[in-house]
Amino acid sequence: xxxxxxxxxxxxxxxxxxxxxxxxxxxxxxxxxxxxxxxxxxxxxxxxxxxxxxxxxxxxxxxxxxxxxxxxxxxxxxxxxxxxxxxxxxxxxxxxxxxxxxxxxxxxxxxxxxxxxxxxxxxxxxxxxxxxxxxxxxxxxxxxxxxxxxxxxxxxxxxxxxxxxxxxxxxxxxxxxxxxxxxxxxxxxxxxxxxxx
Length: 197
Description:
By secondary structure, the protein is an alpha/beta fold. The protein contains eight helices and six strands, in the order βαβββαβααβαααα. The protein has helices at 17-30, 78-84, 104-107, 117-126, 138-144, 151-160, 167-177, 180-194, and strands at residues 5-12, 34-41, 49-57, 70-75, 88-97, 130-136.
C-alpha cells in the first residue's frame, strides 16, 4: 500500500480515546507500516475534548490531519462526531457512539446541544457525502459485556471490521496492552463492536 490512511479519534476526557489509539497503533506497527500519531488534549480531565490523529502507510511524513483528509473518524460521543465531521474526506467512514455527553456551556445554559445530529449525518451518508455511518449505543454494548468503560473499545471493534487488518491482530493488541483483570470484558466489547453490523 502506498497511499496514506488517516484516522481521527475524538471523544471526551476519560472515554478511552488514548487507549483506542494505542491499540490501533500497536496493530498497525505489527503489520510493518510507517506510522505517525499525534494526541491533543483539551482539559481532558474536566470533560474536554481529546483528539488523536493516526496516519499510516508505506511512508508517512506528518501526523497531522487537515480538514477533508480523514478516511475514518471514530467518535466516542455524538457531538464529537459532529464537531470533527468536516475533517472526513468525501466517501469517508464515520464510526460513532449514540451517547450524548452535555458539555459545560450546555449544562450552564449558555448553549444548546445540537439537535438531530445522527439524522443529519444519516442524510449525508444517504447522499454519498459519507461513505458510511456506523452508529452504535457503545456504552450499553460495553455494559452488557461487563465493562461500561470499554465503550470506546467496542467502537474500535466497529472500525476494525472496516480496516484491512485481521481481527486476531486487535485481540493480540488487547492482550499486550490491557491489564489482565480487564482483558476479558474488553475482548468481549471489541468483538461485540466487530460483529455489530
